[in-house]
């Protein structure tokens, strides 16, 4: 997969929309029923108006039409009054029905928008770590904010309005055809012109709106990365280059937005013509037909009113089509997350490379009663012929075999890109191997539930995230049931004396308006979490590399407290860490090429010996 997240195709969007309708079908059906009733109530007014015209015409001379009764002038006035009252009554009924249809529609829209938001959040959280790390930050941010907001603000208004407008138009056209087929044909011509213009627009709108949204994402990405890298930008005097990148992104956003605007201007003019022409047509044709005596004046009036009635829903529909294009492009981007397979925490039975024996024993087995993953028996970590590739690319681990003895210190060294960090992720259960197995106590590490995994193996990296929350909440992440005494003990063990001086103690807010946490303190919080999680094995990947030397020494002291009594696998980017380890695994091109103690490897004169001499200088020979 490329860096960008996928975008859902038309068919997937259609399926998702139908799924939303099905999810709330009673409410949707209720809204449609109310819309039909409102449209039917709206038909009565023009028909009765035609009746008034015919009654008045009949009183003046021969003729007939809907509602006509004949009789003297007093009768005609009474008849007109009766019809006028009925028109008012039906107008009120239509308004009430429309109000409830709109209410049901808004409710449907809000509930649907809430479901879409929740699903997006679930899917974002389920993104495999490897995908989440590679996705441009701006793309995910734009999908989770502007795209979702577009869908959520459009749905409650536009979906019901569109449905109601479609129903009204269909009902009105049926009414005109029933009134008079010739006049009905003109009404249909109105719809056909409208349909043609919309079709022309829809063929071009999706790519144009997708391009506009992609440009918007790219702009967000440039802005986010410029803000995140502000210090680097300042240090390297890159402000000019970043400004150029922002200007280019703004220009692209403007260009793509103008392209959608051009489409809209053509559509609006074409549709305007599509319903003005039939209106003039119906007046001309109506006059001719009335002259010939084939239709009453009342029928012509009613048909003209019906055609006029098409304008309102057609306007709504036109506006909705425009908004829906924009929203459906946004929805396609939100739904695009569906095609990313969620991070899989495989059960022992379905691990690639198998190993799951029917009896549940063996390196890949370990299913407990009822199919749930078994509790690991022992702390031994075994990597057996592990292969791994990021995003279906080429293998970056190619048949790694390794047995880590409980309590040992193992250093993993090797050139950049050898696969050290990747092996660390597999050992900590963050990613499962593509084939082969990585087990702890006979159970696949990546198959363990998070709370169990935390007690087995933990990865400690240079990224120490402190959440904008209380110190207690930040620490309890690792051990939700920990007591205050345990939290204090963990802080003390990592030398976090500052925590005892916080005004609100464990309830002090960190970050934002609360206590400002510096890099060393963040590291201590992270190490205190490790103590609280209490895993038997730690995988350290450059845990202190980013801190300044003074802080690093303090952090290393804290780290020593954390490491005490645990198995440690240290991804060693500096060889002195390796020198102190019980054993050293040398990695190259995704394989372990050497494994042994420092002295044995130096004596063997292989790759490690060469790295050691190159790094340490000849004076270190034989050390
Ligand atoms: N998230 C990722 N997506 C795709 N490829 C990745 C990802 N992370 C690492 N790689 C690739 O996998 C290979 C192994 O990377 P890895 O980080 O495991 O090596 P390393 O030995 O730890 O290197 P370094 O010492 O530079 O950190 C490299 O070719 C790297 O480009």
UniProtKB/TrEMBL annotation:
Gly residues bias locations: 352-371
Region of interest called Disordered, as start-end residue ranges on this chain: 339-376
Record keyword Membrane present: yes
Name of the protein in its database record: ABC transporter ATP-binding protein/permease
Database matches in SUPFAM superfamilies: ABC transporter transmembrane region, P-loop containing nucleoside triphosphate hydrolases
Lineage per the UniProt record: Bacteria, Bacillati, Actinomycetota, Actinomycetes, Kitasatosporales
Domain ABC transporter: 381-614
Keywords per UniProt: ATP-binding, Cell inner membrane, Cell membrane, Membrane, Nucleotide-binding, Transmembrane, Transmembrane helix, Transport
Transmembrane regions listed in the UniProt entry: 27-49, 83-102, 162-179, 185-202, 265-289
Subcellular location: Cell membrane
Major site of localization recorded for this protein: membrane
Entry-linked InterPro entries: AAA+_ATPase (IPR003593), ABC1_TM_dom (IPR011527), ABC1_TM_sf (IPR036640), ABC_transporter-like_ATP-bd (IPR003439), P-loop_NTPase (IPR027417), Type_1_exporter (IPR039421)
Recorded topology in the membrane: Multi-pass membrane protein
Residue ranges of every copy of the ABC transmembrane type-1 domain listed in the record: 29-326
A GO cellular component entry from the record: plasma membrane
Record-level Gene Ontology MF annotations: ABC-type transporter activity; ATP binding; ATP hydrolysis activity; ATPase-coupled lipid transmembrane transporter activity
């Amino acid at each position: 997969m490329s860096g960008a997240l996928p975008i859902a195709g038309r068919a997937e969007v259609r399926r998702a929309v139908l799924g939303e309708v099905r999810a709330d079908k009673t409410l949707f059906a209720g809204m449609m029923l109310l819309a039909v009733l409102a449209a039917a109530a709206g038909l009565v007014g023009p028909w009765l108006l035609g009746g008034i015209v015919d009654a008045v015409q009949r009183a003046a001379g021969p003729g007939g039409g809907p509602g006509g009764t004949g009789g003297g002038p007093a009768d005609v006035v009474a008849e007109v009054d009766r019809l006028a009252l009925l028109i008012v009554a039906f107008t009120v009924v239509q308004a009430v029905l429309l109000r409830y249809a709109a209410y049901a529609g808004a409710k449907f829209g809000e509930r649907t928008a809430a479901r879409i938001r929740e699903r997006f959040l679930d899917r974002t959280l389920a993104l495999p770590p490897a995908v989440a790390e590679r996705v441009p930050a701006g793309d995910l941010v734009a999908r989770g904010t502007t795209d979702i907001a577009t869908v959520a603000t459009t749905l409650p208004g536009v979906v019901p309005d569109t449905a109601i407008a479609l129903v009204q138009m269909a009902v009105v056209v049926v009414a005109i055809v029933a009134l008079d087929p010739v006049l009905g044909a003109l009404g249909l011509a109105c719809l056909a012109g409208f349909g043609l213009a919309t079709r022309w627009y829809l063929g071009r709108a999706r790519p144009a709106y997708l391009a506009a949204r992609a440009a918007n994402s790219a702009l967000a990405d440039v802005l986010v990365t410029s803000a995140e890298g502000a210090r680097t930008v300042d240090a390297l005097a890159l402000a000019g280059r970043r400004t150029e990148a922002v200007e280019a992104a703004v220009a692209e956003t403007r260009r793509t937005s103008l392209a959608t605007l051009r489409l809209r201007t053509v559509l609006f003019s074409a549709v305007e013509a599509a319903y003005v022409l039939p209106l003039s047509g119906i007046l001309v044709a109506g006059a001719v037909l009335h002259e010939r005596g084939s239709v009453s004046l009342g029928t012509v009036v009613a048909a003209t009113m019906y055609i006029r009635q098409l304008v309102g829903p057609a306007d709504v529909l036109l506006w909705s089509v425009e908004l829906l294009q924009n929203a459906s492009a946004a929805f396609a981007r939100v739904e695009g997350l569906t095609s990313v397979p969620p991070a899989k925490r495989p059960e022992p039975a379905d691990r690639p490379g198998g190993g799951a024996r029917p009896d549940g024993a063996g390196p890949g087995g370990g299913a407990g009663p009822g199919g749930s993953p078994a509790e690991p028996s022992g702390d031994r970590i075994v990597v057996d012929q592990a292969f791994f590739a990021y995003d279906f690319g080429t293998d970056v681990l190619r048949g790694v075999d390794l047995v880590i003895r409980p309590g040992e210190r193992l250093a993993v060294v090797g050139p950049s890109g050898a696969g050290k960090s990747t092996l660390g992720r597999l050992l900590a259960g963050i990613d499962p191997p593509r084939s082969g197995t990585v087990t702890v106590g006979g159970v696949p590490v990546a198959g363990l539930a998070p709370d169990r995994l935390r007690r087995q193996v933990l990865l400690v990296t240079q990224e120490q995230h402190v959440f904008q929350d209380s110190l207690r909440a930040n620490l309890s992440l690792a051990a939700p049931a920990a007591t205050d005494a345990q939290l204090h003990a963990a802080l003390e063990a990592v030398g976090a004396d500052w925590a005892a001086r916080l005004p609100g103690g464990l309830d002090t807010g960190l970050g934002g308006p609360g206590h400002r946490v510096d890099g060393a303190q963040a590291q201590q919080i992270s190490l205190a979490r490790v103590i609280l999680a209490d895993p038997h094995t730690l995988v350290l990947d450059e845990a202190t590399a980013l801190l300044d030397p003074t802080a690093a020494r303090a952090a290393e002291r804290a780290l020593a407290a954390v490491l005490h009594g645990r198995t440690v696998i240290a991804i060693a980017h500096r060889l002195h860490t390796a020198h102190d380890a019980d054993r050293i695994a040398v990695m190259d091109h995704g394989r372990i090429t050497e494994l042994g103690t420092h002295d044995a490897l130096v004596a063997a004169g292989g790759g490690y010996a060469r790295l050691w001499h190159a790094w340490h200088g000849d004076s270190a020979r034989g050390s």
